Amino acid sequence: MTAPETVEDSAETVPLTYRQVLGSRNVPQLLLAACLSRLAGSMLLFAIVLYVITEFHSVSMAGLSGFFLTLPGFLVSPVAGAVLDRLGAVRAVALDTMSSAVFISGIALLALGGVLTKPVLFVLLALYSLTSPLTAGGIRTLFPGFVPEAAYDKANALDLSTFSAIDVVGPLLAGAIFAAIGPNPTLFTIAGMYVLAWFSLTLLRGGPAGAPSAPRPHLLRSAWEGITYLFRNPTLRGLAVSYALYQAAAGMLIVIVPVAVADRLDGGRPVDRYVGLMWAITGLAGAVGGLIAGKVLRAGVERRYMVAATLVCAVAIFPVSALGSLVTLGIGLMLVGLAEGVVNVSLLSLRQRRTEPDRLGRIMTVSISVNLIGFPIGTALGGALATYSVTVALATAALMAGGSAAAGRLLIPRGA
Fold it and tell me: Domain Major facilitator superfamily (MFS) profile, which positions (predicted)?
């Protein structure tokens, strides 16, 4: 009697289902680690603002806390990518999850001891930020190592769909826990989630767990090679331009949506509640869009689907979202979410398939940072235009999305 054919063996000829991908070796453990670490990070972004306002009674300091929580990681992402390739993805992600738990619980312990000062808080948040690119790039480096290439799209769809759902759940859960048990217990809860993510990684068996054994260049040279490789690779270069424009549109919507909701509500109705509902709709639609993309995408068609979904996003922003009612705004954002799921799965699969495996860690971390450059530009532009006219702001965001589609069509090669 012959041994049963494994999922990995059969996947080259038979498309895998989501159930088969979830049943692949190490995928459940990796997905659990990804969900726990991302949920902890999403909760922290929201909770740290409440924490600083409660502990230090300063809104300006809360804003600086968000700055230190994010910017250092963005600046060191090329070096983090080189570290990722050097240590191996599993070890790098484990290092980040454990160090995150230490830094976040350290804030709470110092506060309970009455010795937490503003400079110490900022230092601990910056240290947390410095290792965060290891998980951001490492998780997406590991998935291709645990599934066949034919299953990249479905694995990425599961990864990105859970990410979209966490974007909805994270702030809600953080607010509820903060109100129920207080600031320092909330930080201990978040730190505990990072510990559980680390434990889930220890359950991985086999696969790309170790660092390469071949001689490696100096760390800074490896980081520089990651940057130059990205800009010399036509696909990655085209993705950087296209997705940066797409993120500029997304950044504009972050600012425009609250203004649009306020404009369309009569006085007395709570704006925050409706804004939260709009983004919940968008996040859930993004999860659905990602799962749909995982079923229809395959090697060779990612570019086509990415361009088409970006065009749908442009139309959803303008004219659909600009038609003048909360209903049409909600419909427009739902379409934006569905399209975003397809765009993100297409981008991730294309990047994985057209990057040399031994460079994937560096490229993933550098590429994530470069692709997100458009987001802060979009938020600044959205704020300036929304104060003048919501309709003009939405039209400009749609123009950015249309430019993203054009860049994808013109700059990303058809083949590898």
Answer: 235-416
Res 206: pLDDT: 66
pLDDT 10s digits, 372-401: 778 778 877 888 888 889 999 999 999 999
What's the token pair of residue 111? 């506060």
H-helix segments, 57-208 = 59-75, 77-87, 89-112, 118-146, 152-181, 183-202
Q: How far apart are CA 20 and CA 404, in angstroms?
A: 34
Q: Which residues contact 135 (CB under 8 A, 6 or more apart)?
A: 37, 92, 93, 96, 97
C-alpha distances out from residue 307 to 98, 290, 391, Å: 39, 15, 24
For domain 17-202, say whether CATH 3.20.20.80 is its number. Answer: no
Report, at the CATH architecture level, how domain 225-411 is classified.
Up-down Bundle (1.20)
Contact 317/337 with Cβ under 8 angstroms? no
Instruction: Give the model confidence (pLDDT) of 230-267 as tens digits.
Output: 888 899 899 989 999 998 898 888 878 888 888 888 65
Would you kindly state where each structural domain of the chain is located, as residue ranges? 17-202, 225-411
150-173 confidence digits (pLDDT tens): 788 888 888 878 877 787 788 778
